[in-house]
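Form 12-C: Joint structure prediction
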Amino acid sequence: MAQEHYQNRILQAIGANFSEQKEFCQAVSEVFSSLDLLLEKESKYERYSILERITVPERQILFRVTWIDDEGKIRTNMGYRVQFSSSIGPYKGGLRFHPSVNLSIIKFLGFEQIFKNSLTGLSIGGAKGGSNFDPKGKSEGEIMRFCQAFMSELFKHVGATKDVPAGDIGVGGREIGYMFGKYKQLTNQYEGVLTGKGLDWGGSLARTEATGYGSVYFAENILDKYSLGFEGKVCSVSGAGNVAIYTIEKLYQIGALPVTCSDSGGMVCDKEGIDLQALKEIKEVKKISLSEYVKYRPNATYTPVKDYPRGRNLVWNIPCFAAFPSATQNELNLEDIKVLHKNGCKLVTEGANMPSTLDAISYMLENNIFYAPAKAANAGGVATSQLEMSQNASMTSWSFDEVDKKLKGIMKHIFDLSYETSKEFKDEGNLMLGANIAGFRKVADAMIEQGAV
Ligand code: NDP
Ligand code: 2IT
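Section 2 - Result
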């Protein structure tokens, strides 16, 4: 019997050992699907057991977080920090607070982060963390006490040159502030242990905007390559959080027309263009449901999730030139992409992590829809986090324009690297293939050079 390919053997073993970790298996399977030619050409990766090693986190920290609610009751949540790879730099990656968080979710995010961070061209390793704490309906005091309790354990494992967490779903500037304060109190160190900090205490200008802006810059690079542009083009965005809001803001700045957004309760369609000020007021300031949007814009429509047909995300029913899934994993499936395609969609840019299912990705690649994979398209956030670390380390701060210019340059670098790598491996324009190979190769080569650790 012919010997099974290296990557298939490892994938099968992971599937057998971690069958309950569906999201993690999905993320590994997506990366491995791009590696066939590289592994065939370069036997050293098998010789040095790279796939066996790179799929196992260097360290998984699971901890109890106990905090006291407003009624004085002691509450318990799980805390996670998965330090996946430090081959090319200190661990770096966000923290997610959402009731759906479990080890599979954190491992998938941490695994993707390794390659995303590698693609930026900066020296940052991959990690992810978070908790199944649900910030919804919690008071300001409860949020603060939870963040402090979370850091009371996490502080033992992080540090400016060791592991530098940041935000993700449910973790923004407010939560970073409470965690930073606790870290400082516990360690008596004022250091850049977190990114996404407030501008008066070590934060970087443009970090808030970076993921959304970066995702649009990446999409612009694709269109430039094919002499196309965004002027006057209708775009659909999902999500209503940090990534979605600044994707919408940048789309307006380049002359496009974003007409949708969504949150966990439902979606808004505003044919004249999403009212950005109203969206910011609802989701950034008041932190309430998107259903309020129609009070600001009576001509817009709001559809609650309970009215979505089974297995569908209704955001993708709105005809558009480009779609920007920017909420969460697996929010764009095969049915969704077929509807988008039928309605003339030419480009999908992943602002969220792993928003497209594997069969939706295959459909895009087979049907010549430009596909900007998450680990390339949303890397602007973590890249700007690294710019924050640089500013902290050198005790300087750069202007908004300086940071934005660097971000633009990094997004172009990621596009060029992904594109050139797709060409090298005879599938020109397949950016998933290019991004996966380029991201992997740098980390794998560093692992070989650093020996069996
Ligand atoms: P936020 O918490 O700011 O916003 C998340 C948005 O998505 C909210 O509108 C939320 O709804 C909605 N949402 C979350 N979970 C679900 C769900 N299960 N079903 C439907 N809607 C959901 O997070 P971010 O904007 O920071 O993150 C969005 C995505 O982008 C995530 O995949 C994240 O991993 C990724 N990302 C974030 C980066 C960053 O710098 N922040 C960098 C790179 C990627 P509601 O308001 O009701 O909670
Ligand atoms: O998924 C991501 O890249 C993030 N949530 C941002 C991570 C970071 O360290 O800025």
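Section 3 - Comments
The two ends are 33 Å apart (CA to CA). The chain has 18 helices and 13 strands.
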